[in-house]
Specification:
By secondary structure, the chain is mostly helical. It has helices at residues 2-18, 29-55, 62-75, 96-99, 101-124, 127-148.
Length: 152
C-alpha cells in the first residue's frame, strides 16, 4: 500500500517540476494566497510527522520517514509561484517578499537545497543523517519565516 502511494507522489512531483511556472496562474490574488498557505500547511504536517522520530520519542521507521520526506520534497517548489503581484495584501507575508526579491529567492533556494539533503538522508536510511538534515530544514524554514512572514 505504501509503495503505490510513494510512486504516485513521486510521479506527481516529477510532473510538478516539469510544468513551467508560467502555468501556475491564479485568477484572483486570494486564490494564490490560499494555494501557498495550503502548501505550507501540508509541508508543516508532514515535517511534523518527522519530529517525534528525530527526537527519539517514537521508533525510527525508515519507510515512513521516506514517505513523509517524499511528500515534503514534492511540495518544496510549489508555493513560490503563488507569491505573485497583487498578493501583497491579505496575506501573512511581509513587504520584504517583494522589496527584497533577491533575498526571498535566496531563501527559497536554501530551503530547496536543505529539502534535497533531507531526501538524500532519508534515502540513506541513516537516522543520524536524517536528524542533521531535518534540523537544517527547520533552520531554513525559521530563517525565511523570521524575515518574510508577519508574526501572528
Amino acid at each position: 500500500m505504501k509503495k503505490p502511494l510513494v510512486a504516485a507522489l513521486l510521479s506527481a512531483a516529477t510532473l510538478a517540476l516539469a510544468v513551467p511556472v508560467a502555468y501556475a496562474q491564479f485568477d484572483r490574488p486570494e486564490r494564490a494566497i490560499k494555494y501557498r498557505q495550503s502548501v505550507m500547511t501540508l509541508t508543516a504536517n508532514h515535517f511534523g510527522r518527522l519530529q517525534p522520530v528525530v527526537k527519539g520519542t517514537v521508533p525510527y521507521d525508515k519507510d515512513a520517514v521516506k514517505a513523509n520526506v517524499a511528500i515534503i520534497a514534492m511540495l518544496a517548489p510549489l508555493s513560490w509561484a503563488a507569491f505573485t503581484d497583487g498578493t501583497e495584501k491579505g496575506s501573512n507575508s511581509k513587504p520584504d517578499v517583494w522589496s527584497d526579491a533577491a533575498g526571498f529567492k535566496a531563501a527559497q533556494q536554501k530551503y530547496q537545497e536543505t529539502v534535497a539533503a533531507l531526501s538524500a538522508a532519508a534515502d540513506s536510511g541513516d537516522l543520524e543523517k536524517v536528524k542533521v538534515a531535518s534540523a537544517a530544514v527547520a533552520d531554513s524554514c525559521k530563517s525565511c519565516h523570521d524575515k518574510f512572514q508577519v508574526k501572528r
